[in-house]
Amino acid sequence: MRNRFIVGLTLSLLALLSLALAACGGGGATTATAPQAAKAAEPDFTNAGKGADKLFVAVDEIKKAYDAKQDFVIVDARPQTDFAAGHIKGAINAPYFEVEKYLSKLPKDKWIITYCACPHAEAEQAARTLLKNGYTKVKVIDEGFFGWSDKGWPVEKS
Length: 158
What we know:
globular, Oxidized Rhodanese, domain 1, disordered N terminus, two-stranded antiparallel ribbon, alpha/beta
């Protein structure tokens, strides 16, 4: 009986994981700022990036600013359940499908860096919603959450 329960639970979790990955295209809040210790200058991601509109920034560039405790906001664009399971330390959750609900809580004068697990289907949608609503300092972590966590960089659960 117990073995059936464990098998059923495992299959359910695998099904949920498959759905989450499918929502991301099959790949791999309140407001807060990136590391809140002594605030340093704001990073300049203006020229960092790739893609036609330079929206995507390498995870290493974000980590440099993170380590320097520069002042910017990291937004996890995944659903709340994914955020709770693990997210970049200091990130806030603003799911891509409801970013509009967070507009009044997100600063327009700071860089906002979005990410998801895809590595960027959901994060790009969130970023484009922000851009459409007058935010000008927006980038997406090109490698996504797993590009960050696979390097052993700070992650937390909620």
